[in-house]
Amino acid sequence: MKNLKIILSEDRVNFKKIIKTSLFIIKIEDYPKINYSYYKFFHEIDSPSRETIQVLGLPKKYEYRNIFNRI
In the chain, which stretches have pLDDT less than 50? Predict the structure, then answer.
């Protein structure tokens, strides 16, 4: 999430502009840790809609996608 914050700031966007997130994880056991991290970044605003999908494999430990509201 810290890396995502950096990427967003480079494009002058913040977490308030995210309207949907998709998270692809390999180990569902990691979900509570990921959920806590997610909460730390979105607790002060309305959380965007979110889907979390367990997959068999990924190039990295997990993949995160966002859809932004650019109004």
Answer: 70-71
* pLDDT score of 71: 39
CA angle 48, 22, 8 (to 5 degrees): 65
CB 21: neighbour CB atoms within 10 A? Answer: 19
Q: What are phi and psi of 70, to 5 degrees?
A: -100, 40
62 near 23, Cβ under 8 Å? yes
What domains appear along the chain, each with residue ranges and CATH number? 2-68 (3.30.1330.40)
49, HSE (Cβ side, Cα atoms, 13 Å): 5
- pTM of structure: 0.62
- Three-class secondary structure assignment of 18-60: EEEEEEEECCHHHHHHHHHHHHHHHCCCCCCEEEEEECCCCCC
